[in-house]
Design brief:
Shape: globular
Strand content: 15-25%
Largest sheet: 8 strands, mixed
Number of helices: 18
Strand order of the largest sheet: 1-2-4-3-5-6-7-8
Length: 464
């Protein structure tokens, strides 16, 4: 009875959005071999999903894993797009190009189709799940989805751990012999902290076509290790390919689980002020479990509220110095930060630059900082001083930070009329850092977020 009531409430909650208002098909390739069938809802919520049917990279299950999902999404106000992608026949770039083109098309048409370009997800089944997870992990920011829905996905390209046909069709016979290529497109290896979008994985325990442990669950494990948001649902039975089949024993429960998960995804407002947090492991949230929730950028989001969209672009061990051992400006996160087109950028680098092996190039710190500022076109920039290094762990030198790096930051800020956030002075309590004496703990992350939120709030007051 309780389950029936829950399902009734679920139906009632989604029915308010109505049905499909428009359906049409658009070609992605000139020959029409790749296209998207577009299902636009009567009352759009702004959310969109691009669906990638499965079929072992040999054929496509267009109904059960494609068109049959239109009503489910449109009733929730979600625009739905079924992708007919070309088969790779050993050339992986072919389906990847089609999926990337579909993501671009939906975002480029967002205004006309009632879509929030910051709330476009991808969904894939079986081999389509591999394509969806590939687009989630191997593409640039503009083409990467905001969330992923993966049904019994092929994730591994190692044919011993996965569906052999999908592996061979995607990489080709020769590609299967290239262990580096196999590893690269076994997408659990491509998950990136903060950068890989949130995902939900739905599979059956008795799937003997695509083993869950070495595929969907492997992707979940990689996401969890990275601290990224991910949900995993393993149904006791159902085999492979249940899709939208109503005969699947857990069909109604699966739809309820997916609906509930979609409801927990909070899309940013289209008019939200975009805030990019750029930095090293202190921004990244090193040593803080689930830094996507508990790191300083996540806590900054909580403090600033829905009028802002805060993204974490921190990468551990990185330097401002381009000749440092791990230069930040050579990272995917830096490309992402620029592609995000931030209205506000919080820069907190310099800690790792203080190491002797890096500070030997210290004469170039100012020019490298200026390069970063120049590439952040149009953003309101806050330059943060490094927090104190209470210990010389990893050769980090607080003396170099205080006597060399902070004066350069202050000099550049004065010249460019930028605001300095003095974390070094305001972060004087050693109880706020972990045992290494370098990284903030959760309380420290909260303190950082409060300091930066206060600086932003004071700026807003001055502008009134």
């Amino acid at each position: 009875m309780k389950r029936l009531l829950t399902l009734c409430l679920l139906v009632a909650s989604v029915a308010i959005y109505g049905q499909t208002a428009r359906k049409f098909t658009l070609n992605i390739t000139p020959d029409g071999k790749a296209n998207i069938a577009c299902y636009l809802p009567e009352q759009p919520s702004g959310r969109a999903v691009v669906g990638c049917p499965g079929g072992g990279y040999r054929t496509l299950s267009m109904q059960n894993e494609g068109h049959a999902w239109a009503t489910f999404f449109n009733e929730q106000g979600i625009a739905y797009f079924v992708l007919t992608y070309r088969m790779p026949q050993g050339n992986r770039e072919v389906p990847m190009a089609d999926a990337r083109a579909a993501m671009r098309l939906v975002r480029d048409s967002a205004l006309a189709w009632g879509v929030n370009p910051r709330d476009v997800g991808i969904m894939g089944f079986s081999a389509g799940g591999h394509l969806a997870s590939t687009i989630s992990t191997h593409t640039e920011f503009a083409e990467r989805p905001d969330f992923s829905i993966l049904f019994y996905p092929v994730v591994s390209m190692n044919e011993r751990d996965s569906h052999k046909g999908s592996c061979v069709n995607f990489l080709g016979e020769q590609g299967q012999k290239d262990q580096q290529l196999v590893k690269q497109f076994s997408n659990q290896n491509a998950v990136r902290r903060h950068l890989t979008p949130p995902a939900i994985i739905l599979t059956a325990n008795d799937d003997r076509v695509v083993p869950p442990v070495t595929n969907g669950i492997a992707y979940y494990s990689a996401m969890r290790r990275a601290g990224n948001s991910c949900a995993l649902y393993v149904y006791p039975t159902g085999g492979h390919g249940f899709g939208m089949n109503p005969k699947f024993k857990y069909h109604e429960q699966m739809l309820a689980d997916l609906t509930q998960w979609l409801g927990t995804l909070k899309a940013p407002r289209q008019d939200a002020i975009r805030v990019a947090c750029i930095g090293n492991s202190i921004t990244d949230g090193h040593g803080i479990d689930m830094a996507t929730v508990n790191g300083y950028p996540a806590q900054l989001q909580q403090l600033l509220g829905s009028g802002y969209q805060v993204r974490n672009f921190g990468v551990s061990a990185r330097t401002m110095l381009n000749k440092g051992d791990h230069p930040y400006m050579k990272e995917l996160a830096w490309r992402d930060a620029k592609a995000f087109r931030p209205d506000v950028a919080i820069i907190k680098l310099g800690t790792n630059d203080s190491k002797p092996e890096n500070w030997q190039y210290g004469s170039e710190f100012e020019q490298d900082l200026r390069q970063m500022l120049a590439e952040l076109k149009g953003a309101k920039i806050y330059l943060c001083t490094p927090i104190p290094a209470f210990k010389s762990t990893w050769n980090i030198s607080d003396s170099v930070i205080v006597n060399n790096i902070i004066p350069i930051i202050q000099k550049v800020a004065k010249k460019e009329k930028l605001q300095v956030v003095d974390l070094h002075t305001l972060f004087a309590d050693q109880a706020l850092v972990q045992g290494d004496g370098i990284h903030p703990n959760e309380k420290g992350a909260r303190h950082m977020a409060e300091i930066i939120a206060d600086a932003i709030a004071k700026d807003k007051e001055r502008l009134k």
